[in-house]
């Protein structure tokens, strides 16, 4: 078995199992690949246990898996008990190599070897991650559009959650703080008009609205594309309002709805005429506050701003509009990829003016750096 990419190896193994009659689909193949990546098995025995734990769901399927496992990873069929740890198995194993993977073969038995305990042979197994996993640690600015699209499956596994808020609608709750008078009187009919049991209620909880404003100027274009793809894959545009800005503010919520990510990003570029243009953060924030924020969109919402803080206009306007926005929003999270450097200081005019009004500032420059962003969006308290 030649050494190669783990994704291709798992796909070939899964196809062989499926052809042999074992119902192995992409979900089981993904579990097997993740188990191999996390456990990093060094012997065929460990690899076999990973396969059994992730690719079968009933003992009756073991026989098929063992046979296919022998053919794929052993090169020829020998006694499966030799690597399953069967105490009744006889014989030892020697190591043969075939293109980087090792195969165990039966050895001749002698009087001295028949009494010796079986020896487990160390066999190197390739644990190379999939192409998407290798891209996860790379800066978004270094990824091509095709490589960024390859991260869609990993982004769908992320959970973009916002803290809950109480609504005016109520729901029945046995331990609720408020007494539901109407429900109590209706129930009292069962006991001759006597309110034997008080019915209680409490406000319903709903996730807070997420409002994203993405800087699509030349320096921020790759990061804006990554954030738009994250919002599409992980949150869904039905739970988020999305805007882009460079020299003007453009609402993309409807553009991103009900379509594939690649098509959505293409439409976003067509809908925003200032894509890769200059940056006027203050003017964009003023347009949002005047047109959407004070009308209720930002009230009690989680506002996500994606920008490096470079302002071609008046930085003082950024401070004024950020102050207005902070009085409306529940929480403001600023994504600045430049903050990944430990030497970064908010000295640029726009970033310096906005910094005091941000509840959290994160870099989110790669897929592996998104965890602080997700934690900041889910935070419940404001920074003091």
Automatic annotation (TrEMBL):
<dbReference type="InterPro" id="IPR011195">
    <property type="entry name" value="UCP010256"/>
</dbReference>
<dbReference type="InterPro" id="IPR036465">
    <property type="entry name" value="vWFA_dom_sf"/>
</dbReference>
<dbReference type="InterPro" id="IPR002035">
    <property type="entry name" value="VWF_A"/>
</dbReference>
<protein>
    <submittedName>
        <fullName>VWA domain-containing protein</fullName>
    </submittedName>
</protein>
<feature type="region of interest" description="Disordered">
    <location>
        <begin position="80"/>
        <end position="120"/>
    </location>
</feature>
<dbReference type="Pfam" id="PF05762">
    <property type="entry name" value="VWA_CoxE"/>
</dbReference>
<feature type="domain" description="VWFA">
    <location>
        <begin position="207"/>
        <end position="373"/>
    </location>
</feature>
<feature type="compositionally biased region" description="Low complexity">
    <location>
        <begin position="90"/>
        <end position="118"/>
    </location>
</feature>
<dbReference type="InterPro" id="IPR008912">
    <property type="entry name" value="Uncharacterised_CoxE"/>
</dbReference>
